[in-house]
Amino acid sequence: MVAYRHLGSSGLKITEITYGNWLTHGSQVEADTAIDCVHTALDLGITSFDTADVYANTVAEEVLGQALKGQRRESLEIFTKVYWPVGPKGPNDVGLSRKHIMEGIDGSLRRLGMDYVDLYQAHRYDYATPLEETMQAFADVVRAGKALYIGVSEWTAEQIRAGQELATQMGFRLVSNQPQYSALWRVIEDKVVPTSTELGMGQIVWSPMAEGVLSGKYLPGQQPPAGSRATDEKGGKEMISRWMRDDVLTAVQQLKPIADDAGLSMPQLAIAWVLQHAFISAALVGASRPEQLVENVKASGVKLGDDVMAAIDAALGDVVERDPALTRSPEQRPA
């Protein structure tokens, strides 16, 4: 069964492997398969689920709500997000204005079929809205009982600090950040992680397998397998393209003997690597087939020795991205 961790310094416990339905529900897989994946996650002990209003333009929330219908609500931890354009994508259908946040939480709850979410997250930082307005809206969402906790996603260290200061003044706290993080993408380590840790915020990280590249299924000099994310024209191919270089793929193949020696698959090694870090509250893992989840949750509770962690660093070498400037939100909101 999947282990639990505290979400930052809060009292909320979440499963260290959390099910995320970005790029799958309502988009890459049929609803029946998506529901099967959610039920498999529950059977494996996962009780934390992450989604967002923008995923499949609100459809992902509907599918997750349908899949969880009939479950004991108190036994689940449900996360969703607000910022990106939704609906007809009008001028107020995007960002972190009071209008969009208040309408956004109501829409998410309606689609999920729930009275509240456990964690409501600012999906990016909004340069077009005063931070005070955003934080006041989140404070009111919490006071209304529509969200129990508030988090952010892909905010810089400076933005996190400013947001936490305002949140504290308004009677709540930011408890989490949701950044990209993997053995290949470590841009949060230099600034975001120390600031978050100081402020009591945990990291719920997305793409712990670097869009699937760390699974080892993509080979240098060869076409990607049919049906893989690298062939998906709905968005997956674009996201993974930065990793589809021969130097990266060659380095990743050097992880296979390390995984074999540890008795792990390469996906399990990638997830276990993320979970070794104390600042991690959870790794988000999606699935297009239930059997993927069955294998991936075996990374929960795995302890990698210092020698294994060092071997991973040596294998990946200088293909690892560490530039802290790559933590950023769009300067101009999409319209």
UniProtKB/TrEMBL annotation:
UniProt xrefs under Pfam families: Aldo_ket_red
- List GO molecular-function terms, semicolon-separated: oxidoreductase activity
Task: State the source organism's domain of life.
Answer: Bacteria
Which InterPro entries would you find in this protein's record?
K_chnl_volt-dep_bsu_KCNAB-rel, NAD(P)_OxRdtase_dom_sf, NADP_OxRdtase_dom
**Keyword set, alphabetical order:** NADP, Oxidoreductase
Q: Which SUPFAM superfamilies does the record match to this protein?
A: NAD(P)-linked oxidoreductase
Domain annotation NADP-dependent oxidoreductase: ranges:
16-315
User: Which family does the entry's similarity section mention?
Assistant: Belongs to the shaker potassium channel beta subunit family.
The name of this protein is: NADP-dependent oxidoreductase domain-containing protein
Q: Which organism is it from?
A: Actinomyces glycerinitolerans
